[in-house]
Amino acid sequence: MNSRRILLAVTGASGPQYAMAIARAVSLAPGLELHLILSEAARKVIELEADFTAEDLTALAQTTYSEKDIAAGPASGSWRHAGMIVCPCSMASLGAIAHGLGTNLIHRAADVTLKEGKRLILVTRETPLNLIHIKNMLAAKEAGADIVPASPGFYHKPKTIEDMVNHLAGRVLDQLEITHNLFQRWGE
Q1: What CATH number is given to the structural domain containing 102?
Q2: Which domain, by its residues, includes 8?
């Protein structure tokens, strides 16, 4: 494998703009391949919330998988990748991942990512949180996932929604040490 594969899974939580910003940055980064799993619920949320289409998002990926294809490469530990991002991560997917329930390719790939000791970033997008959500975050963290809530920062003085989206997307990419120019770093 000459390129580092980054696996991006998009679930049906609000905020597909974060996934698009991450996908764009990964697709532009030298030496990276974007592999995408797009749930049916994510397609619906994109249709309702975004100014882009699911096809715009899939066009950025080298390979796109159906969440129903549990025989796809990412379902196996022998399929090599540099890390997985679930963005946005619905509370249903968080619960399935936290408890090892491989009900679809997103959940199975996340489980495999954890068992193989690879980085798994869950960009949770829900508010307010109930106790079940918090316990599922704890269980996912204890299993080895990193939780990056979709909470925008303001210290960089964002002027637009895109600035806030890019800041969060950049922070997610930082977790996998992916070089980007989505925001200006503090003190630079």
Answers
A1: 3.40.50.1950
A2: 4-175
* Strands 63-66 and 32-38, sheet pairing: parallel
Residue 66 domain-assigned (yes or no) = yes
User: Which uninterrupted H or E stretch holds 36?
Assistant: strand 32-38
Domains of the chain: total: 1
Domain membership of residue 88 (yes or no) is yes
Read off the pLDDT of residues 61-120 as tens digits, 9 standing for 90 and up: 999 999 999 999 999 999 999 999 999 999 999 999 999 999 999 999 999 999 999 999
Q: pLDDT tens for residues 30-56?
A: 999 999 999 999 999 999 999 999 999
Q: DSSP labels for 59-125?
A: TT-SEEEETT-TTSGGGSTTS--S-EEEEEE-HHHHHHHHTT---SHHHHHHHHHHHTT--EEEEE-
In a domain, residue 185? The reply is: no
Its pTM stands at 0.96
